[in-house]
Amino acid sequence: MTPEPRDEMRDYTGRDLLAGKRALVTGGDSGIGRAVAVAFAKEGADVAIAYLSEHEDAEHTRKLVEQEGRRCVLIPGDLADPRHCEDVVERTVRELGGIDVLVNNVATQTPVRSLEELPDEQWERTFAVNIHSYFRVTKAALRHMPEGGSIVNTSSINGLRGNKQLIDYSATKGAINAFTYAMAQVLVERGIRINAVAPGPVWTPLIPATFPEEKVEKFGEQVPMGRPADPDEIAPSYVFFAANRLSSYYTGEVLAPIGGETLPG
Question: How do the residues of the chain divide into helix, strand and coil, expressed in percent and rounded to 5?
């Protein structure tokens, strides 16, 4: 990618906001997931990373986490598989001794020009990865999460307003928002908070991998800031929601870092 995304949190200084915590980050090999994993490590957490098959990227993330003196467990596999969702949680608990923070971040997207062009297989795959895994990983993790635990879901601006080229993706992100709202009501009595981060354009490997070159060249120019965010700029939102010291009164919130746009309401 040119330029390379900033996703290593090099200028970030932790304050032990997550000291002693055990975190699972799905889609943690690169982009927002990598930045979140490194930020959590700098805040004192051990981290397990679930990812598909990008082993080199995942190893780099592990190196960054371990440089902060924290443990990092890599768990490859397809989170569209219901069984793997459970296995990811069980291995996290086995390797780290528990799970205090869950970040559901894994996602896939494929642009289309019309609904007629969108095949059933793509629709089902997008839902399997982007929302079914959130349901399954969360369900498995709740068996182990203590009072004071935190769940952070990755949504998108496209889940708030839609995107004509990302019909299935937008639908899953809208579902993530509703899932977050509903689960906040379910979990409040257990003392577990659940929130979502809904970024606008973010410069991650998913962009050049899924959009045509002419779209990539102008990616993010439409927002008032005139550019996409880097993952390093988004990860602190996850730290905010993960850390009880910062957000103990927040649950069922959707935080939208979107570069200066104003949302209705």
Answer: 45, 15, 45
Close Cβ partners of 255 (under 8 Å, ≥ 6 residues apart): 195, 196, 197, 198, 237, 240, 241
Q: Give the active site residue among 51, 134, 169, 238.
A: 169
DSSP states along 77-113: S-TTSHHHHHHHHHHHHHHHS--SEEEE--------S
pLDDT band (50, 70, 90) for residue 5: confident
Sign of the Cα pseudo-torsion (167, 172, 176, 178, in order)? positive
Separation of alpha carbons 153 and 219, rounded Å: 23
CB proximity list for 139: less than 8 A, separation 6 or greater: none
The pTM assigned to this predicted structure is: 0.93
Alpha carbon distance 129, 78 (integer Å): 8
pLDDT tens-digit series, residues 55-64: 999 999 999 9
Q: Which of 100, 123, 101, 120 is nearest to 110 (CA)?
A: 123
**Residue 169 annotated among the catalytic residues of the structure:** yes
Closest CA to 39 of 7, 74, 71: 7
- CA-CA distance, 154 to 177, in Å (whole number)? 9
Copy the structure tokens of residue 248.
């103990």
